[in-house]
Amino acid sequence: MLNYIWISLIAIGILVAVGNDVRDEVKNTYRNGNTIGTKVEIQKTTAGAVHTWEGELVIPGAAFDSFYGIQSAATEIRQPVTISVHPGGSASISLSIGETTPVLWREMAKSATVKDKLSGKVKRLTLSPDGLPMSVQFELEPIRFVKMKAITQAALDIAGTAVSIALGLIGIMALWLRVMKVAEEAGLLKVLTRVLAPITKRLFPDVPSDHPAVGAIIMNVAANMLGLSNAATPLGLKAMEELNKLNPKVGTATNAMVTFLAINTGGLVLIPATAIAVRASVGSANPGIIIGTSIIGAACATIAGVAASKLFQRLPRYKKEAEVTNG
Predict the structure, then answer these.
(1) Is pLDDT at 44 greater than 80 in this prediction?
(2) Single pTM value for the model
(3) Contacts with 275 (C-beta within 8 Å, 6 or more apart), sequence order
(4) Euclidean distance between the first and final Cα of the chain, in Å?
(5) Residue of 32, 54, 51, 26 whose CA lies nearest to 41
(6) Each residue of 99-158: pLDDT tens digit?
(7) Does residue 326 surpass a pLDDT of 60?
(8) Domain residue extents for the chain
(9) Count of C-beta atoms within a 10 Å radius of residue 112
(10) 3-class DSSP state for residue 90?
């Protein structure tokens, strides 16, 4: 079911992007093929086969807004620019995109030929008596399909992030799965299981007290309570894998799975090590001050989650579905 939801969201995103791109094309939002003129203040000149000037475009905010049909708060725009005159007399213009660049140009630059740079053709260049440009009329490169390109780039970025996360988890998963195996061989899990049997039996009545899933659940909860989120991840996956072995209908969550997910999502914690480390890294004067509120907040979330899961398990509709599945 979740796959269908994701596919639907992707399809909706693509349709919205295509619709916005078609609207931009019809309205010519980015003024493709139109010429804009403005003053130039030159700061540096480089002579050679290609004669270049570096400086700033000085555009009144009202003129910029009128050209693009927008409204901005800028009274004057100063945009770094490079003007190049090539052999044969043709001239080009290049805008280096930065923090002071208008938002619209920054958006356009994301779909430009060169990332973070807008280029175009110089239509007319007016020089002063000493040979420096005073004003320029230019036409920027055509900008199209901005939204579709943004979605494509976002998909590639997220795919790369997913691979990085997966590779990053390999080491921690190998370590903690081996730690759990050592604890199991040493008998530690049996001791913990025996000590916590009254609690686990009430929370997970469908899971045998000596099943490997109980040990994985205990280790996962312990890691979460110590704030070791990365260590808790492989243990949580292992617990779900073991619980799925008891599942009579693969693909449908059992009561035990739902209860465990509620506990895991609630994030019951005693020492929020990760949050403390983040606060310390940004220079917090007292990074450990969040311990009390974290414990109370996580405890309330866990209690609410477990209570909700147990309540839904007792409702006639869900109880009947569970009985049919078990049958």
Answers:
(1) yes
(2) 0.56
(3) 227, 290, 294
(4) 23
(5) 54
(6) 889 999 999 998 888 878 999 999 999 999 888 899 999 999 999 988 888 888 888 888
(7) no
(8) 31-143, 187-326
(9) 21
(10) coil
